[in-house]
Amino acid sequence: MRIYIKSIDEPAWRSILIGWEPLRTSVDEDNEVTFKRELDWTADEITTTSFNFKVLNVIFATIDIYMFKILYQIIFQQKMHGTWFKSIVKDQKV
Known about the structure:
Blueprint: H1 2-8, H2 10-18, E1 24-27, E2 33-35, H3 43-62, H4 65-93
Antiparallel strand pairs: 1-2
Helix pairs in contact: 1-2, 2-3
């Protein structure tokens, strides 16, 4: 899949390496995020977003739904294990 994504575009592969987050305008004191409207995006932001959408399209088109479920379970278990491990380490320090 890596080779296929790289063959689409180098910036598409770079969007995987760097990651992509929705464009934000501000964060309040209550940690509420305000997202930038698509009408206000610059040309560079539109280009970056289009590469991210290309990559997502490739991933969703090539990975089966059952593989997504397996990946979700793995990620969920890793997060739970990390939370569990942090709580044990915190208890041992006390």
